[in-house]
Amino acid sequence: ESKTYGFDNVRLKLVSGEKLPFADNSFDLIVATETLEHVPDLAITARELKRITKPGGFILVSVPTYLNLRGISKKIMEAILGEGTWDPARSHPGGFERFLTPGKIRSYFKSFKIRYTRAADYGTAWSLPMIPLYPQKFAPFFEVTLGKFPPLKNFAMNYFFLAQKT
Hints:
By secondary structure, the protein is α+β, with helices and mostly antiparallel strands. It is built from six helices and six strands; from the N terminus they run E-E-E-H-E-H-H-E-H-H-H-E. The strands form two sheets. A four-stranded mixed sheet has the order 3-4-6-5. The protein has a two-stranded antiparallel ribbon with strand order 1-2.
């Protein structure tokens, strides 16, 4: 079932399974925010996203990444609890969350041309739970500004990229 939520040109559709129910080259833009870390087979999903993106079209991806202190804790807990079972932010208990790094998520989209990258949230990435890493007044610098610098992009909690199908 498709819902419009009052917008004439917007149709939201809940999909499941490995094959997406859309024709080849259907979309100018696909937005996948905080979802790809949860799909059962990321290689299949990435292939499907490429299939349904129009030539010259874009995909915007955002995922949590773990080249940081939270990643170390995730690896330790998953050694005990099982791969994909531990969510350091505890935002979806009981759900599967794949361990991703910026390089790993980009590797699934290597047939696209990466046009833009950014990272955010160094506070969550490098602090112990419930213990702030820096005073709130410095949050804009640590949460957004640092994510503009190439070497630092790899070590944030969230990684974003805009890629174009060539």
